[in-house]
Write a structure and sequence with these properties.
The chain is mainly α. Helices cover about 70% and strands about 5% of the residues. It starts with a helix and ends with a helix.
């Protein structure tokens, strides 16, 4: 491949990483992870199944 194309791809990759890092932070602090409703329902279903099986 052409070296210029590889350099452009590396620059684009670095820009995407930088944007992702900026989105992950809020006022310089990492935003806390908020579990989705689906994950909460999965956990609740597992707990319910454990209660039923025990």
């Amino acid at each position: 491949m052409n070296n210029l194309i590889l350099i452009r791809e590396k620059i684009k990759r670095a820009e995407r990483l930088n944007k992702a890092q900026l989105l992950a932070t809020k006022n310089g602090e990492i935003t806390p992870y908020n579990p989705s409703v689906f994950e909460l329902r999965q956990k609740q279903a597992r707990k319910d199944m454990e209660v039923i099986n025990s």
